[in-house]
Amino acid sequence: ASSYHGLRRLNLRPEDTVVIFGDGPIGLYASQVVRARGVEHVMLIGHHDHRLEVAAGFGATVVNSHRQDPVEAVARFTDGRMADLVVEATGAAKVMPAVLNSTAKGGTVLLLGVFHHEAPLNPAPIIRHELRVVGSFCYSKEAFAASLELLRRGCVRIDSIVTHVFPLEEIGRALELLKRREAIKVILEP
Questions:
Q1: Of 163, 160, 156, 168, nearest to 180 (Cα)?
Q2: Alpha-carbon distance 11 to 149, whole Å?
Q3: How is 49-109 classified by DSSP, letter by letter?
């Protein structure tokens, strides 16, 4: 619902090119939501191969940022135009220069990732390329209901994102898998 909430604040068009930084649950959901809204040109950038495979299964072009320079990959993907919308879904300050430099002149940056530490930001690319920066936090009741409807209609899948289900008594094991990045999303059952 948080991905949906942020993306619904934007005027996405089917002809837009969308690049998502982050192969966690928020980025993976965002890749599906933009496709559900008719966008065909979607790239997801991350560095966990098993998560990138999931994104590819959703129809995104994927880039492993440990093997390819993300900005160069976006330039190739867009024939040098760069992306109309870049979604930051990592919450990692070190990604921001690549996010800003991957955005087309006059494009939009959507900040969905939660930054737990102060993130210094160079405003030069924002000014030079006349970028629009939009922040989004959590979701609304309406976004939650709309997300459930997308799920019900099969526009968004969770089967490959929810990788583990544990009884509540095994919360320690579940947290350890998440910490080691071996799970994407975990459900705990009472």
A1: 163
A2: 20
A3: HHHHHHHHHTT-EEEETTTS-HHHHHHHHTTTS-EEEEEE-S--GGGHHHHHHTEEEEEEE
Helices (H) then strands (E): counts for the chain: 8, 8
Please report, in tens digits, the pLDDT of each residue of the chain (190 residues total): 888 888 988 989 999 999 999 999 999 999 999 999 999 999 999 999 999 999 999 999 999 999 999 999 999 999 999 999 999 999 999 999 999 999 999 999 999 988 888 888 899 999 999 999 999 987 778 888 888 888 899 888 888 899 999 999 999 999 999 999 889 999 999 9
Domains of the chain plus CATH, in order, are 2-135 (3.40.50.720), 162-190 (no CATH)
**Two tokens, residue 4:** 């949906």
Tokens linked to 90: 């990592």
The answer to whether 161 and 184 have CB atoms below 8 angstroms apart is yes
Token output for 147? 């997300």
Say what angle helices 49-57 and 25-36 make with each other, to 10 degrees.
20
For residue 181, give the DSSP letter.
Answer: T
